[in-house]
């Protein structure tokens, strides 16, 4: 696929792909100095002893957040322009799958920080999986098992899935030559510039209010009131809503209503976390 103006938001697509590429490029040198057996020590060593280490970590963190938000907005843009009608079921499935794959990769990145945010996020997601009868424990053992084996599985999933996501995006979905152009240089320079000007520090333990990643605080708040299984099912709902656009096109108005209600509810619950 080559980006064509008029079919999708051209700038939004470039922001998403360029930030994803910057995230991978900055993550490669960081991986040589990161050890999952001593994650927090590794990050502190990177920031204090490795040349440009703090800049690379800032860039890796920022580009991951931007690529996640841009991919979500890209999917919303595709829905608003009804591009799912011109795609095959398989194409729309992979586009939807890519969003949740990037969300999982970003989430594992938070776990690998091993600061208060990472520790809390790991504990919450592990308890969520373990609350599911029969399948919960095997799934947790496959993807996390942080309390048993540390971050080894999280680290390997972070690397492996990042590789497959990039291969899928830049081979199957986007021709990389369409973004590596001089007139797109501003998209590649903006994030490094911000990373030089601003820092994204780790969250120390025993902070005023413990929280997980910013996109996870809604689930964290819901766990105060609801059974973990209900929360897990709620978090899985967007998968079925997004796939419904392609597989159930006759119900699009209802899917739109359900998606808006879901986003509104999750936003309200997330805001409640910060207001308490």
Structure notes:
With 276 residues, the chain is an all-alpha fold. It has 2 domains: 1-114 and 151-202, Cytochrome Bc1 Complex, Chain C, CATH 1.20.810; 115-149 and 209-276, no CATH class. The protein contains 12 helices and no strands. Mean pLDDT is 90; it is low at 1-6.
How are the SSEs placed, and which strands pair?
Blueprint: H1 10-31, H2 39-49, H3 53-80, H4 89-113, H5 116-130, H6 136-143, H7 146-149, H8 152-173, H9 185-197, H10 217-222, H11 228-247, H12 252-275
Helix pairs in contact: 1-3, 1-8, 2-3, 3-4, 3-9, 4-5, 4-8, 4-11, 5-6, 11-12
Give keywords.
single chain; 276 residues; mainly alpha; Cytochrome Bc1 Complex, Chain C; 2 domains; disordered N terminus
**Number of helical stretches of at least 4 residues:** 12
Shape: globular
Measured between the Cα atoms of the first and last residue, the distance is: 46 Å
Compute the number of strand runs.
Answer: 0
CATH topology of the largest domain: Cytochrome Bc1 Complex, Chain C
Q: Can you tell me the number of structural domains?
A: 2
CATH superfamily of the largest domain: Cytochrome Bc1 Complex, Chain C
Query: What is the helix fraction of residues, given as a range?
Result: over 70%
Rg, Cα atoms, Å? 19 Å
User: What is the average per-residue confidence, as pLDDT, rounded to a whole number?
Assistant: 90
Briefly, what CATH class of the largest domain?
Mainly Alpha
Largest sheet: none
In CATH, the architecture of the largest domain is Up-down Bundle
Strand content: under 5%
Spans where pLDDT lies below 50 across 5 or more residues = 1-6
Q: Specify the oligomeric state.
A: single chain
User: Helices and strands: which structural class?
Assistant: mainly alpha
């Amino acid at each position: 696929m080559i980006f064509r103006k008029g079919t999708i938001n051209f700038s939004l697509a470039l922001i998403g792909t360029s930030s994803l590429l910057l995230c991978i490029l900055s993550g490669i040198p960081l991986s040589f100095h990161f050890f999952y057996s001593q994650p927090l020590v590794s990050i502190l060593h990177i920031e204090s002893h490795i040349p440009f280490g703090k800049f690379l970590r800032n860039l890796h963190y920022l580009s991951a957040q931007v690529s996640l938000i841009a991919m979500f907005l890209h999917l919303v843009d595709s829905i608003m322009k009804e591009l799912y009608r011109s795609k095959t079921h398989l194409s729309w499935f992979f586009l939807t799958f890519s969003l949740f794959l990037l969300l999982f990769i970003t989430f594992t990145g938070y776990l690998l920080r091993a600061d208060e945010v990472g520790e809390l996020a790991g504990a919450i997601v592990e308890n969520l999986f373990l609350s599911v009868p029969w399948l919960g424990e095997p799934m947790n053992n496959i993807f996390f098992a942080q309390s048993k084996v540390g971050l080894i599985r999280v680290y390997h999933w972070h690397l492996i899935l990042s590789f497959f996501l990039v291969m899928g995006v830049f081979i199957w979905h986007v021709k990389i030559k369409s973004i590596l152009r001089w007139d797109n240089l501003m998209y590649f320079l903006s994030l490094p510039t911000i990373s030089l000007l601003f820092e994204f520090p780790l969250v120390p333990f025993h902070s005023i209010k413990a929280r997980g990643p910013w996109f996870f605080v809604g689930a964290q708040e819901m766990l105060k009131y609801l059974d973990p299984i209900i929360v897990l099912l709620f978090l899985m709902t967007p998968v079925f809503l997004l796939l419904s656009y392609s597989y159930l096109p006759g119900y699009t108005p209802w899917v739109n209503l359900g998606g808006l209600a879901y986003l509104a509810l999750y936003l309200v619950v997330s805001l409640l976390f910060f207001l308490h």
